[in-house]
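Q: My labmate handed me this sequence with no annotations at all. I'd like to see what the chain might look like in three dimensions before we decide whether it's worth expressing. Could you predict it?
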Amino acid sequence: MRLGGLFQSSAQYRLGTQTVRKVLTGGTDTAAINRPWVVVDGVLRIALLLYFHELGYGPLPLALLLVCPQVFSAITGTARDRFPAVAHFGDRTQLPLLLQIIALAMLILPGDLLTLSWALAAQAISGSAGGLGQREARAVFAASSGGAVPATLSDWFARLSHSGYALQGMGFFLGGTLLSLVGLQATLGMVMAALGALVLRGPRHAAGASVASARQGAPTGALRPGVLSAARLLLGARDVCLAIAVPVHLSTAYGWSHAAVGSYVALWLFVVSATQLLTPWLIAATGYAAARWAALLAAVPLLIAISPGAVSFPGYEMLGGLPLPELSLAGGLLLFAALYAINVVVQDRLAEHYPSRRQDAASNTGLFLPAALGRIGGTVLSGWLYQTESLAACLLFSALCLALMSALLLAVPGPAQASLRRA
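A: Here is what I predict for the chain of 423 residues:
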């Protein structure tokens, strides 16, 4: 049931806008400057996905809606990495924020005027703005797992606030919850108002030393870069089940509300982020370890695909008064999130110690393009397989890709058998 009346007064609308603004702002370090792009991406992904699904669009058109900003973000993000002039222009002007506001304004139309093609055009502008505006996003978010183990709750919160996965999870939570409460137009209006406040504050410049300078001493080695690039491409198989199939399945098969779906995806991303904080101190980064963890990751979607979460088992719908299919799917995917985080960290550590070029060791951008292509391909396959087959097909295809990734990682040489395990 929609609760749009809760936010009808202007005072309540301002309160919602202030809440969004607090999430988007704060700090002058690079991660804080990147925060608006990551959070807004999460808001748009879940809000547009659930909104157009409710209008009756199929999984494949929904996949195109999510792929469009990823493609344009990858293009402009690659331009930032390759051409310093593009990065300087994005950092020193307010154009990226203005483009994002234009994209949001395009989406604030009455329901009968907001078509899928119009939303695709807005998403293209949004993706371009995000790729142009983010500053060293891949390097900073990869570096956020370094340092000492968080000792207090405040330490955990500080580290999570700099994690790209946690920030995107906050966006999913806000997008799903506000969509349930106030609808799409009011949700995007709040985000646009918060971004407008950032424009009025003027450009912010990152403080402190860069990630590149912190990693200048990373050793170079003889790693075959194609192996890790292919592995990171196949790691995009997570989106074969998660991008379209799981949110749509939770909404249609189990009747979850927009807020519940958004909150669950947010929880999934928070599990990834929290696991990444622990992984560097617990896991050794070797080729064999990477292959082993990839095999464990592949086993999870395979088991979910043959469980009540994806296949109907008459007579086994309840377990202790709780719905067994939902428990199998939701619980299994949370385990998948933890194992996914371990795989990302292990592969990143291998890339740092065996880069193909020294600049890849400094910025860790060598895996950015394969990862982006993997997410794009995974999103398209998620929509196509779920529309033509079922959730089980998405899970099985994901397991197949991850098993292939495990086999490829066996070809990665151990770093002179020197473990990267931290003391």
